[in-house]
Every structure is written in structure tokens, then in C-alpha cells.
Amino acid sequence: MKKSGARITLLGCASIAAISLAATTPAFAQDEGELADASTDVVITVGTRRGERSASDTPAPVDVVDGTELLNQGDNDIQNLLRTSVPSYNVNTQPISDAATIVRPANLRGLPPDSTLVLVNGKRRHRAAVISFLGGGLSDGSQGADINVFPAIALKQVEVLRDGASSQYGSDAIAGVVNFVLKDADDGVSFETEYGSSYKGDGEQWSIAGNIGLPIHAGLGGFINLTAEYG
User: Fold this and answer.
1) Which of 2, 35, 149, 163 is in Cβ range 3.0-4.6 Å of 60 for a Cys bridge?
2) 68 belongs to a structural domain
3) CA atoms in the 13 A half-sphere facing the CB of 225
């Protein structure tokens, strides 16, 4: 179970692309071409140099985890949600591990956290300040991105590229690429609460989260999409 405590995450700053006023150019990795028909397949941005491409039309397989799948699970920690949805993605509880207790090291394909390239809307996510030194051997001395800052309700989908990632994105993608695609709806409101405990009545965990999309008028033609979570 998740350790007791409080966490608040507000995705409302440009540093993690939670607010978007105009279309951005993602990081791509194949030839330019026609846009695939999004009505017949999931559109992705990783593993391709084309603006948007269907998941079935890429040279390497890409796992796409829909945001609804993440919300339909019982946990409220994004690391644990990915662990049950993405093959070879591993993360464990670090009860006595300095700052790694908060920024838990995650391993993709059995490699250290900093061997996985983390993207947000196709843009590189900066690494956390934590350098794991009690990582059980595998994560010792590694410095990965802090993935726990993403509330599940803020995600439209998560794209995971494993095969051929380093040849397309460089040495910091040896284990693969994980791209977090934030919601881009310009209207609508969603809200959820979660509560759980063990059968013995201890290990309680709870969270409250909400998402709202707002259009930007005055001729800008953009939107603001905000998400907040407390638990």
C-alpha cells in the first residue's frame, strides 16, 4: 500500500506542458508522410518523424495505454498504474531510501531509470534532482525523471516505445521512451475520489482529483486544461 502522507500536484504551468496555447512540434523519429486515419487506429507521436501516425504504421511496436485504463485501476499512484499496464516496467516501494522514498526509481527492460527517455507531449522531461544510492544495485547512482508528478486524470494516453528507441532518440533512450500525453480538451469537467485500505483496516490511502478544460477566446483559438490532485 502507499505510505500515508499528503501530496498535491497542480498541472498548470508551461514547464510540464499542462497549459497549451498553440500547437507544439513533438520529437519525431521517422520519415515525413501523410497523416494516418485516426478513426481506424490510435494516433501516436513516438517512434515516428511524421507529425502524427497510427500505432500500427510504425517500424517498431508502440504500447499505448489509454487514460481511461489508468483511471479504472484501484491505485492512485501513476507509477503503480504503469507497472500493471506496461510490460517490463518495474517500480517498488522504497521505505528507507533517502529521497528515493519519494522519487521512486522506475526500471524499464531491467535497466536503470536514467536509461529511459521520459517525454511530456513529445518534449523531453527534465530529470529529478534525486540520485539513487540505495537502489538495490540496479538503480545505484542513477538519476531518472520524477514520474509521480502526473495525476492519472490529467493523462490522455501514455505511449511506450521499447524496441529501437536508442537508435531513434539517442543513448538516453537505451531502455526505451515513455511519452506522457496530457489531455487537450477545451471543454468539460471531470472529478474523482478514491479511498482504499487493507483487509486488516490499515494502510489507508485516498485521493481527490479534478480536471477542467477551458477555451481561450479573443482570437487565439487555444485552450487551457488544468488538473489538480490531493491525496
Assistant:
1) 163
2) yes
3) 20
